[in-house]
Design a protein that fits this description.
The protein has 295 residues and is an alpha+beta fold. Helix content is 27%, strand content 32%. The protein is built from 4 helices and 22 strands. Strands 8-7-10-11-1-2-15-14-16-17-20 form an 11-stranded mixed beta sheet. It has a 6-stranded antiparallel beta sheet with strand order 13-12-22-21-18-19, with no helix packed on it. A hairpin with a 2-residue loop joins strand 10 and strand 11. The radius of gyration is 49 Å and the shape is rod-shaped.
């Protein structure tokens, strides 16, 4: 997929994801060029993957490709330059630019990796603050009709990406939750309407998120209830503790035993006295009868 770069603008490139783009001075054009020499609907780009054709809608002068006048249409390739009025555009192949670019320390870069088919495998490096939207004034310009002209602002922070929705028509979402502003961390899915991206962070940033998820899992683990046969045996100390927990019952039992003993003792003593009295009485009667008959 190719990009269109306005050589006289310091804004980011426009990814050519739609099949057609209209260029002209009319504010309804996909690419508006404020120039008296440019007609309202002056030209259009027809896009089919990496094949791009530019068509002159008015015929005659006003459209140049690589310094040559194009009165009808011409097929463009990466590296070609065309101009409308005073505006000059370059067709860029990001794969070639990436291959020629110096190696960047991956540990210090945040980026968005596209998940949509139209932007498959495309990554957008992030440093500082970026405006994403459909307008050419956006730092990340994506020509998608459902995207607002200035859809959201992305600010790189030490611990993630601060996302601020700029009152977009179709909303900004993090992990399918609509947000007005929020912090996105590595691994989150960030959506601008239907455009989906994976947040890629510096090396090691995913570990923070993974650790957080792991801790949450430990806190919310559901364990089965213990059955009686699974309980550990009661130790002697535990038995003593349980016995001490019922002192009232033991004391009551001891008191009952003592009371029973006290009640039994008088009963046994009374029976012994009765027997002695009977014996003594019998002896006295016997002695008395002997004295009466023998005396």
């Amino acid at each position: 997929m190719l990009q269109l770069v306005n050589k006289k603008s310091d804004k980011g490139p426009l990814w050519l994801v739609e099949q057609k783009y209209v260029l002209g001075s009319d504010s309804r054009c996909d690419i508006t060029i404020v120039d008296e020499s440019v007609r309202g609907l002056h030209a259009e780009l027809l896009v089919n993957g990496d094949d791009v054709e530019i068509v002159n809608l008015i015929g005659g002068l006003g459209l140049n490709v690589n310094g040559q006048i194009v009165s009808e249409s011409k097929t463009l390739k990466a590296g070609d330059v065309f101009s409308l009025g005073k505006s000059e555009f370059t067709l860029v192949d990001p794969k070639a630019v990436r291959a020629a670019a110096p190696v960047v320390d991956s540990q210090s870069v945040w980026s968005l990796k596209a998940l949509n088919t139209a932007l498959a495998d495309k990554s957008f490096p992030l440093q500082g603050t970026h405006i994403i939207g459909r307008s050419q004034e956006s730092d990340i310009c994506l020509g998608v009709v459902h995207l607002s002209r200035k859809h959201a602002k992305i600010s790189v922070r030490e611990n993630g990406l601060h996302i601020l929705d700029l009152n977009s028509a179709n909303g900004t979402f993090i992990n399918n939750k609509k947000v007005s502003q929020a912090l996105a961390v590595a691994g989150d899915e960030l959506c601008f309407d239907t455009l989906r991206f994976r947040v890629i962070g510096p090396a090691g940033s995913n570990k923070v998120m993974e650790a957080s998820v792991s801790n949450d899992a430990d806190l919310t683990t559901v364990r089965p209830a213990l059955q009686a046969e699974h309980l550990p045996p009661v130790k002697p100390a535990q038995k003593a503790s349980k016995q001490k927990s019922r002192p009232d019952a033991q004391a009551q039992s001891a008191r009952s035993s003592q009371e029973s003993a006290v009640v039994a003792e008088p009963s046994d003593h009374a029976d012994g006295n009765s027997r002695v009295l009977i014996v003594v009485t019998a002896l006295i009667l016997g002695v008395g009868l002997a004295w009466y008959f023998l005396g």
